[in-house]
Design goal:
- The complex is a heterodimer of chains A (515) and B (132).
- Chain A has 515 residues and is of the alpha/beta class.
- Among the domains of chain A are: 62 residues, no CATH class; 35 residues, no CATH class; 128 residues, Aspartate Aminotransferase, domain 1 (Alpha-Beta Complex).
- Chain A has 18 helices and twelve strands.
- In chain A, the strands form three sheets. Chain A has a seven-stranded mixed sheet, sandwiched between helices.
- In chain A, helix 5 packs parallel to helix 13 and helix 6 crosses helix 7.
- The longest helix of chain A is centred in the last third of the chain and has 37 residues.
- By secondary structure, chain B is an alpha+beta fold.
- Chain B has one domain: Beta Barrel (OB fold (Dihydrolipoamide Acetyltransferase, E2P)).
- Helix content of chain B is 17%, strand content 39%.
- Chain B contains three helices and nine strands; from the N terminus they run E-E-E-H-E-E-E-E-E-H-E-H.
- In chain B, a hairpin with a 2-residue loop joins strand 2 and strand 3.
- Chain B is globular and about 40 Å long.
- The chains are: A alpha/beta (515), B alpha+beta (132).
- Chains A and B meet through helix 18 of A and strand 4 of B.
Amino acid sequence: MRNTQDTQSIFELSKPGRRAARLPECDVPECSLRELLPAKMVADAPPALPELSEPAIVRHFVNLSTLNMSVDTHFYPLGSCTMKYNPKRNERAAAMPGFADLHPYQPEDTLQGMLQMLYEMQETLQEISGLDACSLQPAAGAHGELTALLVAAAYFRDIGEVRTKVLVPDNAHGTNPASAAMAGFESVTVKTTVDGFVDLSDLAAKLDDQVAVFMITNPSTLGLFEPNMRTVADEVHAHGGLIYLDGANMNAILGITRPGDWSPGKGGADMQHYNPHKTFSGPHGGGGPGAGPICVTKKLAPYLPVPVVVREARVARREALENDVKDNNSRPAPHDSQLFRYSLDFDQPKTIGRVRAFFGNVGVLLRAYAYIRTHGPDGLRRVSENAVLNANYLLSRVAHFLPVPQGRRCMHEFVASASQLKRDKNIAAMDIAKRLLDYGYHAPTVYFPLTVPEAMMIEPTESESKETLDAFTEVLFRITEEDADLLHDAPHTTAVSRPDEVRAARQPVLTYSAE
Amino acid sequence: MNPEQLLFAKTHEWIAVAEEDGTKIATLGLSAFAIEALTDLVYIDLPAVGRKVEAEQPFCEVESVKAVSDIYAPVEGEVIAVNDALPNALETLGDDPYDAGWIAKIKITDEAGLNNLLDHAAYQKQCNEEAH
């Protein structure tokens, strides 16, 4: 049975005087804060914190956690977010004391393991993207976009070109135009065709010598691979612009195609970000910490944020060691740490500077590193193949009762439309999404991309079995046959039923007041 | 106003043109189709009176629980009035899109943009295509 009394607000559970721990009498002289700090730094009264016993606190949070949906408890086909399973071995790797207990101000010589991991992560991400340099610093995907656009701006400034515009297709993630604006560019929308591809004539009309960057999500938010990618890249490059790949959908193409190769002989993407929490199975934390590493071509490398992790060969040691091994075959080959020294390089005169403290959010990077090394190159390719296979299987079943306007095939996700149901039965995408919660499924992404009316963006990921996909399809179908009134009030079984989204947006209550 | 007598932009604004003292004034709002597609509205950002606008360029925006959408000026001109009642009564946009739901009045300085507008029948056709 669900425990509801312990999922009240923690303030409502508070009883004066309750404590989780009681400390012994202080055995050193006590000194008032007011004597130690200037008066203006000391609050008039202590904050009104809730007072609870330890079991009450634990029950409160554990019971709250059972109201949650997560990939560990439910199928979670949230399109664009790539809610794949997060292997527990990643957690073990990230929790190893050699990583978890480091202090960023430790001397570099005592951080060699961490720095080696970060260096290898840079190299690996470069290899997967087909690009030349990497920064692990950005703290999230959108931060990666912003960082890359600042790199592009620094590059154009350095070569003496004034470029003011960033082109973004109309089905892009909203973060793209937002990042462009944050980086000081004007964002210009490029239309897509009814098939969901970049409208080449609209691109041609908007391309000029003011265009700094064309930001493209490929595979797109419709789950389609852009068939004109090469033409798009060549056209943008011919006008002196750069191609930015929004790497949100890298899960579909790992080991199959590399953004840097998209126009053979002429380059492809010049910059991209990764979302390690999507592509490389990092946890999707409640607001963070995330990571959004970026890769760029050689000509953009000097502008990357500092620090970058670099490796130098311990040359003298290496030769000595190798000779040693030759002389004595019973000795093991030299260890990496005997051959190389890793360090943080701040000496980049053209850098845009720092974008994040220390080495970035290494916890997420570590999990991604563990995932990449677990799979290896062939395994990563199989990840993408299975992600695409699962999505196409689901598409082929769902399209019978929820039309998929763009295409009979997809990459890692597809966008169905509840448009006809809306017209015929007054059942909207939102109603279906809410009702899915009653059946124990997380909802797909709805109303995105905006180019598809009543959009339902479904991404099963490679983690799911055929049985799960079949069961989901059957529930989805059953919902489309249900009574519209029942759906309008759904969900019926969750702790919180349908929230008033308009009121939440217009009159948000952002702080809890104990009074 | 009867929507069949209005002009429509491809970006879903309706426009009524009237002549006052020799200058042409465009009154603008959002079509019933657009309001329906936006679903529940939460915010409108009205332009400042006196703002110069360009044809087919965004000049204010409306936000729903789904997304923020730009509102485009159909013609070049200057904003001479805005419907101040709207921000606190967004339901007006849906309840009465072609009268009380007007958004802004623009003094037209270049009529060229009017040539790109659709009549009601052509606009309905576009809406039917978009809904599929």
